[in-house]
Design brief:
Length: 106
């Protein structure tokens, strides 16, 4: 093998190793992405629909404390036995006491 071919082969091997490493790192990072992150993204529009129902200051801002208090009250409402657990199937099948998300705050 000529010197030129050895250099070219070495260069191609190095590029292949870098590409393989990048692909592997991307795949590992994707696998490490928490599932709840995707769920948070999916629920963001529904949470935004709840904002008009929360107490706001004179500038229209909702504090984290008020936001968390509102969500705690909602949790308590969905936990009729007050055992600190909500059965998702029961909560989804139960009658609601107000407008659905699609009409909330309108």
């Amino acid at each position: 093998m000529s010197k030129r071919n050895r250099v070219l082969f070495t260069l191609l091997a190095a590029v292949a190793l870098v590409a393989a490493g990048f692909t592997l790192r991307t795949a590992v990072a994707r696998d490490r992405t928490p599932v709840h992150q995707d769920n948070l993204t999916l629920g963001e529009s529904q949470v935004r629909q709840l904002l008009p129902l929360m107490p706001a200051d004179k500038y229209g801002d909702v504090s984290k404390e008020d936001f968390m208090s509102f969500m705690a009250a909602e949790y308590s409402r969905l936990d009729p036995t007050h055992e600190g657990e909500i059965n998702v199937a029961d909560a989804l099948s139960a009658e609601t006491h107000g407008p659905a998300f699609s009409s909330a705050g309108k």
